[in-house]
Structures are given as C-alpha cells and as structure tokens.
Specification:
The complex is a heterodimer.
Chain A (H helix, E strand, L loop, with lengths): L1 H29 L2 H4 L2 H24 L6 H6 L6 H6 L5 H21 L6 H25 L23 H30 L4 H32 L10 H26 L3 H23 L13 H29 L10 H31 L9 H21 L10 H26 L4 H27 L5 H7 L2 H26 L1 E7 L4 E4 L2 E12 L4 E11 L2 E6 L2 E5 L4 E5 L1 E3 L4 E10 L5 E9 L2 H18 L2 H9 L7 H9 L1
Antiparallel strand pairs in A: 1-10, 2-3, 3-4, 4-5, 4-6, 6-7, 8-9, 9-10
Chain B lengths: L5 H18 L18 E3 L7 E3 L8 E6 L4 H16 L3 E7 L3 H11 L5 E5 L3 H6 L6 E5 L5 E6 L4 H17 L1
Parallel strand pairs in B: 3-4, 4-5
Antiparallel strand pairs in B: 1-2, 3-6, 6-7
Classes of the chains: A alpha+beta, B alpha/beta.
C-alpha cells in the first residue's frame, strides 16, 4: 500500500509540475497575474508530493519491503538501518527520486526567499524549474520507477553494493545533488531573464546567493567523494580523472566561473551575456553529467545498470532542455547588451581572464572525457584518456588563473595601473618567490613542481594579506577588532575561499612531492618502516560484522621507539554479493596520514601489505571545506540579510504591518 | 556566423556523438584477432582421448568455436542457447574445454546435453592464450579460409545468435 501511495504521489507531482511549468510562464508572457500566481502554491504542493514519495520509499526500505523491486535489488535484511536508508540513493531509480526531491526542495526555497522579486520574474523562475521537474518525473514514471512491485516478493534482498556501505557514501550523493540541482536555480534565473529581456544588475544580485550556495554544496560533495575514494578503494589515491568524477568537476569549474562573473554583473553591470551563458552551461553540465552516468555511454565504477531506453530518454530530454535554452540564448542574448566598458588592465579584465581560463579548463576536461566516445563513434578505435592528459592540460591552465587570483582582488574596477599594482604587490611576490625556492630545499627535496606549487599557495596567502591590510586602512573604527568587524562578510568570504585554494594546493603539492609507499610481504611479528615510522604486524583476527565477515589486521605504529597508534585495516567479505572489500586503516593528522591496507593473505598468517606515508593529504579536503566555508560567509553578508528583511513589507498582510508599527 | 549561435552548434555536435554513443557498447573489447587467421591447434578430444581435434580438419567449413568449462557460471546461462543452435543444425559448434577437470566436464555435459560435434581439451589454457581468451565463455565464428570473423565475449544470448551469428554464418557459407 505505502509504495502505491508513493507512486501515486509522483503521478500527482507530475500533474502539478505540468501546471507549474506552463501556466505561470504563459501568464508572464501575456501579463495575466492570476495565472502567474499559480507558480508559488504549485511549487509548494509539488514539494510536498515528492517529499511524500520520498518518505514512502524510505519507509519501504526501513520496513524491508522486498516486494518492491528497487528495495529488493539494493538492500538486504542484514543491512543496518542507516545504510538501508542510504540505499535510497544507492542505485539508479532512487537517485533520480533524490534528484527530483532536491529539485523541489530548491523550488520550495525559491518560494520562501523570493518575496522581493517582481511577480513576473518569480513565476518564470518557478515555471522553468517546473519544466525541468516534468522531465525528471516523466523519466521516473516511464522507465525508472522506484516503486515498481516484485510479485511474488523476494525472500531476501540482493544487498547494497558494499562499496557504498560507508558513512561517506551516505552523505556524498545528497551533497553533490544539492550542488548539481542548485545550479538549476541560477539556470532558471537566466532563462527567466532571457524570456523577460531584462538583464540588469538586480538580476545578478538575486542570482548570486543561490549560485554560491549551490557551489558550496558541490564543493563539499566533490571533496567527500574524493575522500571516500581515498580510504575506500584501498590504494591511497584521491582523484582519478574518472569520467564520472569529471562529470561533477565540470559543473564545478563552470560554477566557479559563474560565481565570479556574477560578481562583475552585480557590481559593474558587465559580462551580462557571458554570465547568462555560464549559468546555462553550469546546469547543462550537471544534466550532461547525469546523462553520462545513467545512460551507459561510458563505463565507470559509478555507472549503474544501463538500459538503452533510459539513455534515449535522457538524451532527448537533454536536447530539449539544453538545446532549447541555447537556442533561446542565441535568439534573445543579442538584445540584452554587453554592459559597461572597461580597460585592458582592470579587475573586470582579470576576472574575465580567470573566467576564460576556467572555461578552457572545463572544455579540456570535457574533451578528455568525450574523446574516447568521439573516436569510437567515428569508428577510429577504442582508447581511454588517462591522468597524464588531464595533468598536462590542467596545470598550465590553472597556474595563470591562480596567479591572477592574487592580483584580481587588488586591482581597481574599470581601470588599474601596472606601476601601482607592482608597487603594492612587490612584497607579496618577493616573499612568495624566496620561500617557494628555499622551503623545498629545507625539506630536503627540490623539484620544479614542488616550488611552483608552494609559490602559488604562498602567493595567494600573501596577496590576500595585503588585500586585507589595505581594506582595513579604509574602514572606520578605532581598534583593530572594530575595524576587522566592519569588513563586510562577503569580502571575508572571498579571502577565506581563496585561502582554501591555497590550502588545497599545499596538500596536492606536498603529497605529490613527499609521499612514500611500500608494498611488502609481512609475516606475523615482522616490522617494516617508511620514513620515521615503524609498522609492526601482529597478525589478523576474524571478525564478524552485521552483514560481512572480515580479517582484521593489527599494526602497531611507532616512531623513535614511542608508540604512535594502533591501526586495524580489514579485508571484508560481503556474502550476499560475494564481494571482497578493502577497508584501509588511516591515522589522520594535520601534517601527515599513515595509511595501511591489507592486500592478499599469503601463507602462515603472512599478508601482502601496503603502507603509505602521505604528508599534508588532509589539506586537500580541508582546502575544499575552507572554500565552501568562504562561500557560506559570503552569503551571510549583511546586504543579503537586509534584502531578506526588506521583502517583508512587500507581503500584503495588513496585520503584519500593524504589528511592525507596534514593535 | 552569429557568435551567439556558437554554443548551440557545439552542443548539437556533442548531442550527435552522444546519440551515436548510445548505440555503441563501451564494454565491448575489440579483438585484434578478428579478421586474422585463427591460431592453429591440435588437442586431444574430450570423449576419446586418443583422437586429436585439429583446426586443420575444418578448412573449407564455417564453424563456431566455443570455449567453455564446467566451473563457469556464464556457460550455464549460455548452454541452452547452444543446445538450440545445435538442434537447428544451421552451424556446427565445436567446443574447447578450457582449464577443466575431465570427469566434471563429462558430468556437466551429461546433465545439460552436448551441443558440440567435437570437443577439444585445453587443459593448461594454451589454446586459450593463442586465441586471446579473456574468460569463458567465449565464442568465435571462423570462416572457410580459417579466418576469425566474429568474437563473442561472455555468454551467447538468443538475441545475439539471431541477429549476429546466424546472418554472419549464412553470409560466410555463401562466400
């Protein structure tokens, strides 16, 4: 019964989405305000309906209802409750439901925080989001229904893929989807603006916080996925340039460009057309990512069951959504105008250069991921494009982008001067150069890449410090604390996010430059050393988990004779899917990770073992979280809170106005 | 050209390729041996170990070579398909028992039936290596000149037999 309620809720949601997609947009076109007024209640109803469906599926999982095909396929009675709930997005159908649910969640948020928008704009935005939702609901109801019954019911479920039975996997997909789908808001804003033909600074001001929030979620989502790969796949890598990783990275690059371009449109009214294009691009790449993961066009650990009908559906959907919006762009954008002019050397120009570099990086990632498909489609053979391509293309594009990242915030809008910038930045440059050249020598291993990485990281930090100092000189306040407090939060946000990049670069550089690894055979009682650390293997024990059995190794790690930690890596066997999983044991630290994973048992209790010493690796993810924190700071800025407060009088409820007067 | 049309045109090209991509199978591994002469072999036969099963005896015929083993799961899936194909008499199937125990292989055939006209024994997997076998089951279509014309990795399904194997065999017969 419950699954049928869920199914029915989805059908109703589709009906509501159709209404929401067509009436308000039509109403906005002909100026009919009662049709436009449909948007808000429709969006809220749709949210409640999809929430109901989501709740029903969650209930079916919690209840171990193996008469639901999807539940039987992705869970098992032995699977603990939290993983059963996470199994909702453990495979294709459920992750679509999650995607749709998050889309309606964003819609709901738009209805809450859009009081200050003109009614035509709001109804167009919600209408566009409704149309996107129509596509996803149709997709679910036609070829990927999560509520499909399995009659007679299975006695036991086929279990969740053991790779996904991990705390990181519980939150990685929702975070990522929050980011992906979040770009739909910026996208809807852009389409609404194209439809209405008014692309002004106010438009950019409204889009900015939405885009930043989505970008924060995406950043965290990608970081979680990368961290998961690091400790779950058992060989210590953190980024593989896997097609699906790229699928999430491309929207991130486009989104990063969008965040910066929106800043220019907001502050200077420039780059309008470019910003709109980026907004369309960011969301299109999110959709394209979904398509490539779900359609079986490529193979990857992430690719779920492939079905040509699904692939075709998504392709047609993509063609309509992206093709339609790009056609609209080609038609309407020329009328929008290009915005204010600026000199060759100005903050605008540097942001533009940064945008171009980011988009070029995005394009090269796109090319790298699609290249095998192009060749295959042209029947020129099968190849795969690996990390060497991406590394060699990516680094040269990012180096100038990061160099500009230091200068940009210090340059004046409209027109900056070289001698002035050089004067202000000479210390930062000197300090960065000298320390980047000497630090690796002090650490005992000088390589050009190591110096380059450190140069970029220190450059970001020193230029940020200069920027902050100059800023402090211009704000009012007597004490330092007072002046620090009067620096707007959006400025802090930028500084923090940029320093996040610096932290990230330090992580990558140090890991590449100084990591050590050892593949050894270890007998019980034997020791092996990497760096200053000595690992003693004390044999394995058999342990039994809720739905697996495992061999758990014990390793005593010591440094200079003092015990540092004890690590327990496991080799797990999940009987339902008969899969072997390597659970690495990690001793994380600010300056280094110690990482042990069990290879294969050899004989007499001996194992092949992998030992890693990874300096600064946690800085990689730390940097990502700091970036996201920067984004969060930026949207907590006073002017957004003001805008939020200012919208209240617009609500036409007299009693509220009266209460205000009394207050 | 209008520069505002550029993004749309790029997208159209990408969609075109994605569309073609949908019809391709990314898991399909091309065999460098397709179009080349099948490696020669002469192996003892499974039923009568005194006799030799040799590829030279099959010159001038179109035939299927199926690598299988009693320990292989995919072979169980494909077995009924092979039985039907053998019954239809449209093509002769030869088997290569790959890295297997003789008694287990015999029990297996007794239980499921024997679709093969002759079965060779490849106990150490030498023939498998020469043919570039990734894993069993694998099936090769070999023409009258002894050239491999098609390779199926993994089990044969009725669909593949209908759409690929039989039309190809017919075409090769008439060559």
């Amino acid at each position: 019964m419950i699954p049928e309620i869920g199914h029915f809720a989805l059908i109703l949601a589709l009906c509501v989405a159709l209404v929401q997609g067509f009436l308000p947009i039509y109403g906005a076109a002909v100026g009919n305000s009662s049709l436009m007024a449909v948007a808000k209640p429709a969006a809220r109803t749709q949210f409640l309906l999809v929430l109901t469906a989501f709740g029903c599926l969650a209930y079916a999982f919690a209840d171990k209802d193996f008469s639901v095909l999807y539940v039987a396929a992705t869970s098992n009675s032995q699977l603990p409750l939290h993983y059963r709930l996470a199994a909702i997005w453990g495979a294709h159908e459920g992750s679509l439901l999650l995607w749709t649910f998050i889309l309606t969640l964003w819609m709901f948020a738009v209805t809450l925080f859009s009081g200050h928008l003109p009614e035509t704009t709001r109804s167009r935005i919600l209408g566009v989001m409704g149309l996107v939702s129509v596509g996803f609901l149709l997709f679910m109801l036609t070829v990927s229904n999560p509520f499909e019954r399995l009659i007679p019911a299975a006695a036991e479920g086929r279990d969740l893929n053991p790779l996904l039975q991990d705390p990181g996997m519980v939150i990685h997909p929702p975070m990522l989807y929050m980011g992906y789908v979040g770009f739909s808001v910026a996208f809807a804003f852009a389409i609404a603006a194209l439809l209405g033909g008014n692309l002004d600074a106010a438009w950019a001001r409204w889009s900015r916080p939405w885009t930043t929030v989505a970008w924060c979620f995406l950043t965290v989502g990608i970081a979680l996925g990368s961290g998961w790969a690091y400790y779950e796949l058992g060989w210590g890598g953190w980024w593989f340039w896997d097609p699906v990783e790229n699928a999430s990275f491309m929207p991130w690059l486009a989104g990063t460009a969008l965040v910066h371009s929106l800043a220019v449109t907001d502050k200077r009214g420039g780059f309008k057309v470019w910003t709109v294009l980026l907004a369309i691009m960011a969301f299109s790449l999110s959709l394209l990512g979904t398509f490539r993961v779900r359609s079986g066009v490529l193979t990857s650990v992430h690719a779920f069951a492939t079905d040509p009908k699904r692939g075709l559906f998504i392709l047609v959907f993509l063609a309509i959504v992206i093709g339609g919006s790009l056609a609209l762009y080609a038609w309407r954008a020329p009328k929008v105008g290009l915005g204010g002019s600026f000199a060759m050397l100005s903050r605008e120009c540097m942001l533009l250069a940064n945008n171009v570099l980011l988009v070029a990086a995005m394009g090269s990632v796109l090319l790298g991921t699609l290249y095998p498909l192009f060749l295959d489609a042209l029947d020129l053979g099968k190849i795969s494009v690996g990390p060497p391509y991406f590394d060699s293309v990516f680094v040269p594009l990012m180096v100038p982008a990061i160099f500009l990242m230091g200068i940009g915030p210090l340059a004046q809008w409209k027109k900056a001067s070289v001698p002035d910038l050089a004067k202000r930045l000479k210390w930062a440059f000197g300090v960065s150069l000298v320390s980047a050249l000497t630090l690796p020598i002090v650490m005992g291993n000088w390589t050009p890449l190591l110096s380059l990485g450190l140069l970029l990281a220190i450059w970001i930090v020193t230029t940020s410090a200069i920027g902050l100092r100059e800023r402090l000189a211009h704000v009012n306040g007597n004490s330092l604390v007072e002046r620090l407090a009067s620096v707007p939060r959006s400025y802090w946000g930028m500084l923090v996010a940029h320093c996040g990049i610096a932290v990230f670069i330090v992580g990558v550089t140090m890991v590449k430059g100084f990591e050590t690894e050892k593949d050894v055979r270890m007998n019980v009682g034997e020791t092996a050393s990497i760096g200053d650390y000595t690992f003693r293997f004390d044999g394995t024990q058999d342990v039994v988990g809720p739905n697996y059995t495992a061999a758990r190794g014990t390793f005593h790690v010591s440094r200079d004779g003092r015990e540092t930690t004890v690590l327990y890596p496991e080799k797990r066997r999940y009987p339902v899917q008969n899969q072997i999983m390597t659970e690495a044991a990690i001793d994380p630290g600010l300056l280094r990770d110690l990482y042990v994973s069990l290879g294969e048992p050899i004989d007499d209790g001996a194992w092949s073992v992998r030992l890693y010493h990874k300096p600064f690796i946690d800085w990689i993810w730390g940097g990502c979280f700091i970036m996201a924190l920067g984004g969060a700071l930026a949207i907590s800025d006073r002017r957004y809170r003001l805008a939020w407060r200012r919208q209240e009088p617009a609500v036409p409820v007299p009693t509220r106005a009266a209460r205000r007067k009394v207050a | 050209m209008n520069r505002f049309l550029l993004p749309l045109s790029i997208f159209v090209v990408v969609v075109g390729f994605l569309g073609i991509g949908l019809t391709l199978n990314p898991r399909e591994i091309p065999s460098p041996l397709v179009g080349k002469a099948a490696p020669e072999f002469s192996q003892p036969q499974l039923y009568d170990q005194e006799k030799i099963f040799s590829s030279n005896d099959l010159k001038g015929k179109v035939w299927l070579l199926n690598f299988w083993a009693s320990w292989c799961n995919g072979c169980k899936t494909e077995h009924p398909v092979l039985m039907d194909l053998a019954k239809s008499g449209q093509v002769t199937i030869y088997g290569m028992d790959y890295k297997d125990q003789r008694d287990e292989a015999l029990t297996w055939l007794q239980r499921g039936g024997n679709p093969y006209s002759v079965i060779g024994v490849d106990e150490v997997g030498r023939v498998g290596i020469n043919f570039g076998v990734y894993g069993v089951p694998e099936t090769y279509v070999i023409d009258k000149q002894g050239v491999i014309r098609y390779k199926q990795i993994g089990p044969l399904y009725p669909d593949t037999v209908e759409k690929k194997i039989l039309p190809l065999v017919k075409q090769l017969e008439s060559e």
